[in-house]
């Protein structure tokens, strides 16, 4: 569903039947607040976030966790794990160009807000 607008994403989230809806909303708010250049749309049947390219997509398949898949745009390329400082060990690397953040509650997201924000800013810098 490419080319969706923020209003479309609002409607998509409002229509979701997911037990972690408050967490989905909180994570979206955190992502959009990172930088005014960030936009979101529905891609892969979930909210996806972009600047010059897509860098993060929520995975909403699990009822007990919201996953945020971090990726480097549409073209495959390697990103050395050392390029992202992760002192709290929050990232799970899925491949040379993808990593995962996982949250189970809004309180967990809130308690990790500074670390998650730092990770996301570093990740976004790799898009340039």
TrEMBL record:
Pfam families: DUF1801 (PF08818)
Sequence ranges assigned to domain YdhG-like in this UniProt record: 24-124
Superkingdom to which the source organism belongs: Bacteria
InterPro entries: YdhG-like (IPR014922)
Protein name per the record: YdhG-like domain-containing protein
């Amino acid at each position: 569903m490419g080319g969706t607008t923020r209003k479309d994403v609002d409607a998509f989230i409002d229509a979701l039947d997911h037990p972690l809806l408050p967490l989905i909303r909180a994570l979206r708010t955190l992502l959009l607040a990172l930088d005014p250049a960030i936009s979101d749309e529905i891609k892969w049947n979930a909210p996806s976030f972009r600047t010059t390219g897509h860098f993060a997509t929520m995975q909403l398949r699990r009822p007990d966790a919201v996953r945020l898949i971090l990726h480097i745009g549409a073209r495959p390329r390697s990103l050395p794990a050392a390029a992202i400082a992760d002192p709290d060990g929050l990232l799970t690397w899925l491949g040379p160009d993808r990593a995962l953040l996982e949250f189970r509650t809004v309180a967990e997201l809130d308690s990790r807000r500074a670390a998650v924000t730092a990770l996301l800013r570093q990740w976004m810098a790799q898009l340039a």
